[in-house]
Amino acid sequence: MAPRPHWIFGDQLGPHFLDPRHGGPDAHAPVVMIEARSVLRRRRFHRAKAHLVLSAMRHRAAELGDRVTYIRAETYAEGLERAVGIGAARRPRAAREADTDGTAERSSGGRLTVCHPTSRAALAFLGAYDDIEILPARGFLVARDDFEQWAGHGGGRSLRLEGFYRWVRERHDLLMEGGEPAGGTWNLDHDNREPPPRGQDTLDVRAAWQPHEDDIDDEVRRDLDRWERDGEVGFVGRDGPRRFPATRREAMSALRHFVTHRLEDFGRYEDAMLAADPVMSHSLLSAPMNLGLLDPAECVDRAERAYRSGNAPLNSVEGFVRQISGWREYVWHLYWHFGEDYRTRNALRHTAPVPDWFLELDADAVTANCLSTVLAQVRDTGWTHHIPRLMVLGSRALQDGWDPAAVTDWFHRCFVDGYDWVMLPNVVGMSQYADGGLMTTKPYTSGGAYIHRMSDLCGPCAYRPTERTGDRACPYTTGYWAFMDRHRTRLSSNHRTARAVKGLDRLKDLDEVLTQAKERGAAPP
After folding, report:
1. DSSP assignment, residue 352?
2. Are 84 and 112 in contact (CB under 8 A)?
3. How far is CA 416 from CA 198, 285, 412, in A?
4. pLDDT higher than 50, residue 339
5. Do residues 202 and 195 make contact, with C-beta atoms less than 8 angstroms apart?
6. Distance between CA atoms of residues 94 and 170, nearest Å
7. Whole-angstrom Cα distance, residue 108 to residue 136?
8. CA dihedral for 181, 185, 190, 191, sign (positive or negative)
């Protein structure tokens, strides 16, 4: 009997998605890939993101050669019909929803196999087809059933990252020594919060790995130019030379380069920012990992080997391992665990629209140097590291009360590593506190003092981080106190924010602060 064809999505491009072990597709199954133009029409994605995804898909198709049927279609449904001749089943709505409840794969057989997709929309789409067998998810360390079992042990009362992270470390024997964490401490975050070195514009580390574009990249760019010129699609941001891996070989080169040359210096400045050095010692591996070109297990394994061989300090390795085996896994599982209604959570009742200057990545319209610098980084590359995302971009949205669903959509569209499963918990839960504390214990926002301490962005700014009112008042300092006042009742009962709320009563100029924040409104800060 001939093996069934296997469909791989554009974020399932690594060899582990075609590995027959652990319930994968048949060993020599023909492969189907579908490039659906409708995906680019639904949202105004960052141009560099569209380029990266299409380049990676077409590179993978070239590698697979005659084994793959690569369809360029208007929709996935059209692509499936053309590739394997199957159409959506006309089944009752309840039956389709039973297949897509986010807890189990359908394993009753079919004419086509596919690994569990990474979005609820894709899973719902697959649920309309009786001829598609959904195999277990790949590209993560923890199976979904195992996560639900862990979550159930706490009765659903505590889903905090730290407990999950320790459980993953123990379960996968990561950085463990005789049943205890290496170095005797689970979390070395306190060693990884140093401000940038004074007097340096950049860190003294080896430059990040860079790819070389080829004919496939040229073809993708010509197609994007034509589609945009013809008015079929629209983009934001700039598409310069590709900065992230688009093939498995490139991804492995980037991983080796980071572990060999940059991991050693990653930890201590993990949370710092430098205007002229947006990458610093970060790995830039989130994009290839989220495309499926790297498996998280091989990333944490290489990092741990660097520690065991004495080539990287424990604080750097632990910080990197925590980002992958802790945070990335945690976000993936919470995406499914919280359910579809998590998307509409808005505990703080923020409804202000995202302003045009932010939507269009118009960094030149912004006076605040931190925000202008970071927005320009997103415009030019589709990437910044986690602190600018959280404490500059996300904090601006939180302080100004922007609609969290719209903010989530912006992050999804504008970041090369952004997918629905990535951004929904990260933005709704972590960044905008729209879930009211299901994911984190407090809102993550601050005045200008934090940005000043952790970066060199405040020095040349027209505003002063210590000033709350007047022409030189820092928008983040003013915005912080206005946010605290707006949510005074809620935050006063939170043990992590109660002290800050009490600080409002010591501000003799609070009325002036609130007036200044209101008058600025949605204008670029």
Report:
1. B
2. yes
3. 31, 11, 8
4. yes
5. no
6. 39
7. 13
8. negative
Query: What percent of the chain clears pLDDT 90, i.e. is strictly above it?
Result: 84
Give me the sheet containing 112-115, strands edge to edge. 68-73, 31-36, 6-7, 112-115, 132-135
CB atoms within 10 A of CB 93: 9
List, in order of start, the domains of the chain with CATH numbers: 6-135 (3.40.50.620), 144-208+262-337 (1.25.40.80), 343-520 (1.10.579.10)
Q: Is the pLDDT of residue 80 over 60?
A: yes
Q: Name the helix (H) or strand (E) containing 132.
A: strand 132-135
pLDDT digits (tens, 9 = 90+) for 342-366: 999 999 999 999 999 999 999 999 9
Given a contact cutoff of 8 angstroms between Cβ atoms, the answer to whether 115 and 17 are in contact is yes
Mean per-residue pLDDT over the chain, rounded = 92
Q: What angle do CA 378, 355, 271 make, to 5 degrees?
A: 40
What pLDDT digit, counting tens, does each position of 145-163 carry? Answer: 999 999 887 655 578 899 9
Q: Which amino acid is at 525?
A: P
* Dist. CA 432–CA 152, nearest whole Å: 26
CA distance 439 to 187: 18
Q: Cβ distance 423 to 397 under 8 Å?
A: no
DSSP count for the chain of H helices, then E strands: 24, 7
- Which residues, 6 or more positions from 189, have their beta carbon under 8 angstroms from its beta carbon? 319, 322
Burial class (CB in 10 A: 0-12, 13-18, 19+), 275: buried
**How far apart are alpha carbons 190 and 504 in whole angstroms?**
28
Q: State pLDDT tens for residues 475-498.
A: 999 999 999 999 999 999 999 999
Give CA–CA dist 469/207, Å, rounded: 41
> Given the structure tokens 């389709």, which residue do they identify?
96
> What is the Cα–Cα distance from 237 to 376, expressed in whole angstroms?
9
Instruction: Count CB neighbours of 156 within 10 A.
Output: 10
Contacts of 295 (CB under 8 A, 6+ apart): 14, 16, 138, 139
Say how far apart CA 171 and CA 185 lie, in whole Å.
Answer: 17
Q: Nearest to residue 220, comparing CAs of 55, 71, 53? A: 55
Mapping DSSP onto H, E and C, the string for 413-439 reads: HHCCCCCHHHHHHHHHHHHCCCCCCCC
Structure token pair of residue 339:
């359910």
Sequence-separated (6 or more) residues with CB below 8 Å from residue 90: none
Number of neighbouring beta carbons within 10 Å of residue 378: 27
Q: Where are the beta strands (DSSP E) in 205-341?
A: none
Whether the Cβ atoms of residue 349 and residue 442 lie closer than 8 Å to each other: no
Range 82-91 average pLDDT: 70
The CA distance from 203 to 176, in Å, is 30
Q: Is the separation of the CB atoms in 89 and 131 below 8 Å?
A: yes
Whole-Å CA distances, 412 to 444, 455, 486? 19, 26, 28
